[in-house]
Each structure stands twice: as C-alpha cells, then as structure tokens.
Amino acid sequence: MKQQIAIGVDVGGSHISCAAFNLNEKSYLPETFAESDLDNHGPADEIIAVWSKTIACSIEAVGLENLSGIGFAMPGPFNYEKGIPLFSGENNKYENIYGLDVPAALRKSLNLPADFPIRFINDATAFAIGEDWIGKASGSKRSLSITLGTGFGSAFLKDSLPVTSGDEVPDQGCIWHLPFQDGIADDYFSTRGLVNRYQQQTGKQVAGVKEIAMAAPNDLGAKELFNDFGKQLVELLHPWLRDFQVEVLVIGGNIANAFEWFKPALEAALEQKNCSLRVEISSLKETAAIIGSARLSEPDFWKRVASCLREM
Asked: Distance between CA atoms of 296 and 108, rounded to whole angstroms?
C-alpha cells in the first residue's frame, strides 16, 4: 500500500471535508472521511487549524507513510499553481487568508516534510475530474459536468483535462458568468433563483429547492417552475454542448436531487435542438470533488494537468 494513498479535500464556504483514496485501485475509502464546520471570516491561524485538524484525521486513518500527497478542491479566486488564496472582501469569505502560502502553513501545522505534495484545483473542475475518472463521465473523451446549488459550477473536460480557453468553451471554461435573461446564469440556475421565482409565481416562501420538489406532485406552480428550469438550461447550454461536441452532461449539486421534475422538459428541449448526448446525474455526489482533487497526487495525471492551473 506504500504511497498509493492520496487525500482529497473539499473546501466549502462553511465547512471542510476530506477522505483518502487508493490511486492504484481507484477506490474511495469511506472510513477515512472527516468533516468540520468553520467560520470562513475567522483569522487565518484559526482556519488553518481547523483544516489541519480535519486532514489529520484522514492521515491517521491511513498512515503518513502510505500517503503520496494531498489535493484540494478550492473555490476561486485562487492561485492554483502556488496555493495562494485571492479572496477579497467582495467574495464575503476567507478574506483573512488572502495572500497566504497555504501549502507552507499546512506543512508546518501538520508537521509534514518541506517537499510533501499539497496541490490545488478549482472545486468545480475537481468534481468533473472525479466524474471523468470513476463516475458517470468515465470513458468519454469530451464531457461537461455542472453543479447546481448555491452557485453554478462547471467544467469542460477533453481527454480528462480541463479546457478553459478557445472557441469551443466560454471564457475561462465557466458558465456561471454568462448573461442570461435579466442577469447571469448563476442568478437563474441556482437555489436562490428557483426559490425567488417560486415565491414570485405562487406567493409562497420556501427555504430551498427540496421543498419545491416535495410540493411538485400537487403544485402546478412548482411543476411549471421545473419545466421552465429544464427548458432554459438547454437554452443556456446548447451552444456550448454543440461547439465542444459534448458526449455526456453530468449534473450534480443539490438541485440534481429534483432532476425527475425537470428531466422531461430538458430532454424534450435537447431533442428539439437535435442535440444527442447522454445526460447523467452524479452518483458520486459530494465525493466527486474529493476524488478529483485526490487525483492530483497521481504522478502521470499531475504532469498533464499542472499546466492547466494557470488559466483557472
């Protein structure tokens, strides 16, 4: 087992989760999972302490001697090449670790060797890499993976590597910022977008999409909302599904749990656009980003993907 194990870390706005992954066997090790809540407005030393404490639990479960590296799935803005956060006050999170050398801070806190690999990649890209490696996009040459929830994450992969520039993909390989209706895609295809439109259409206030989905069997407003969601999602994605020649679209995030309600409209809209591809719902779910970030410790993959980081 020596040095066949990597730890993948998923950093969210209010929590951190991690687990180990056997790179040779391509197997996720659920017994190594650890998670902690944190205050993302806290001081840098407090944030590093929570991250370290959580990662240490997974390290203890597999043994440091078996560990080949640690990979992070991180939201942006972030310098993924150097491991330096670029969060400013306008991001409303992690502003106190702006400019911090995270790898150095973690190596010191975890008592790791100075050359121990700690690597970083965008969280939506990590999700896509996980899906491409052992998930629903496995075996495809060109995929688009999206996460629909608090925000709109996306990553285009060609031959297992992220594509972030060129005519085939939007600017930065991201969809969230694309203009859509009266705002941008992130406004419309997110939890807040669905919740706000549901209130506007029905006058009912709900906390999240789960409540709208539960109401859908007997609520015409909820059904119409999901039908619109599926149709409009195709309107947004179709030019890029076509230009990138996407073979499989993988959908994750909390809104994916309501897929049964927007699936018919989405499939009908794809057919109307003569767009033939597979649409899959992630079965890896929250573990996809952990698995994708753990793959950064696989030497051959790291050689291929490292040059993509500067464009993220």
From this structure: 21
In a domain, 247, yes or no: yes
- Give the per-residue pLDDT at 82: 96
Asked if the peptide bond before residue 30 counts as cis, ω within 30 degrees of 0, the response is no
Give Cα 229 distance to the centre of its chain: 20
* Residues 23 and 149 both lie in one domain: no
Q: Quote the domain boundaries for residue 147.
A: 136-281
Residue 123 tokens read as 């969280």
Contacts of 197 (CB under 8 A, 6+ apart): 225, 228
Looking at the structure, tell me whether residues 150 and 256 fall in a common domain.
yes
Can you tell me the mean pLDDT for 174-193? 95
Residue 134 has pLDDT above 80, yes or no: yes
Asked whether residue 312 carries a pLDDT value surpassing 70, the answer given is yes
Half-sphere exposure of 35 (CA within 13 A, CB side): 13
Q: Total domain count for the chain?
A: 2
Q: Count the helix, strand and coil residues of the chain and give each as a percent rounded to the nearest 5.
A: 45, 25, 30
DSSP string, 31-65: EEEEEEE--TTS-HHHHHHHHHHHHHHHHHHH-GG
Does pTM surpass 0.85? yes
**What pLDDT was estimated at residue 283?**
95
Contact 195, 204 (CB under 8 A): no
Residue 80 in any domain: the answer is yes
Whether the CB-CB separation of 191 and 150 falls below 8 Å is answered with yes
Among 218, 235, 229, which Cα is nearest to 262's? 229
pLDDT, mean of residues 298-308 = 94
**Is the predicted pLDDT of residue 89 greater than 80, yes or no?**
no
Mean pLDDT for all residues in the chain: 95
Q: Are 130 and 292 in contact (CB under 8 A)?
A: yes
Q: Residue 286 falls within a domain, yes or no?
A: no
Q: Three-state DSSP class for 215?
A: helix
Burial 275-295 (b: 16+ CB within 10 A, else e): eebeebebebbbbbbbbbbbb
- Residue 157's identity, in one-letter code, is L
